[in-house]
Amino acid sequence: MRIGYARTSTLEQIAGYEAQERELTTAGVERIYKEQVSSVGDRPELERMLRDLRKGDVLVVTKLDRLARSVHHLGEILKTLDDLGAGLQILGMGIDSTTAGGRLMLNVLGSVAQFEREMMLERQREGIAKAKADGKYRGRRPKAEPLLERILAMKAEGMGDTAIGKALGMDRTTVFRVRKQAEAN
């Protein structure tokens, strides 16, 4: 059986999501598992699909980045597929892991993708360091700081940090940290 997997990172990416579904259907996929979640978060449909695969099935995706988040993750997925006796086909690359050449290309492309991601993160770190040195980067604005007066007032009313955090939509430790910092000044 040909089983498809489609994923977008956000709910707003409707066109990309629909395009993946069309491509998979055109490729003869009989069942499509789909989800709209970030690659770094939990992906329950991917896990469910991997559990549902059977010997002889072929997992079909439109692009490699829709499936795996890293070379290590790709290796885990390929091991699962191998253990099951299933294959992987990536439409956009013309790769089919049931062939030796397809398997080689898949590993090479996965390594290049991971290298590219690591280079992008390195450039990002360099850019942040330069911006900090130039005094242009201050980091993320503290979440609780604008609510400091409310936090202190709620604490004065006898509320605990956990209750304050729930009321304001933040973690208890964030409330504690900003409160203690304000009390120390």
Outline the fold blueprint.
Blueprint: E1 2-8, H1 14-26, E2 31-36, H2 44-52, E3 58-61, H3 71-84, E4 87-90, E5 95-96, H4 100-133, H5 148-156, H6 161-168, H7 172-184
Parallel strand pairs: 1-2, 1-3, 3-4
Antiparallel strand pairs: 4-5
Helix pairs in contact: 6-7
Descriptive key words:
alpha/beta, Rossmann fold, Arc Repressor Mutant, subunit A, 5-stranded mixed beta sheet, 12% strand
Descriptive report:
The chain is α/β, with parallel strands linked by helices. The protein has two domains: about 1-115, Rossmann fold, CATH 3.40.50; about 145-185, Arc Repressor Mutant, subunit A (Orthogonal Bundle). It is built from seven helices and five strands; from the N terminus they run E-H-E-H-E-H-E-E-H-H-H-H. It is elongated, with a radius of gyration of 23 Å.
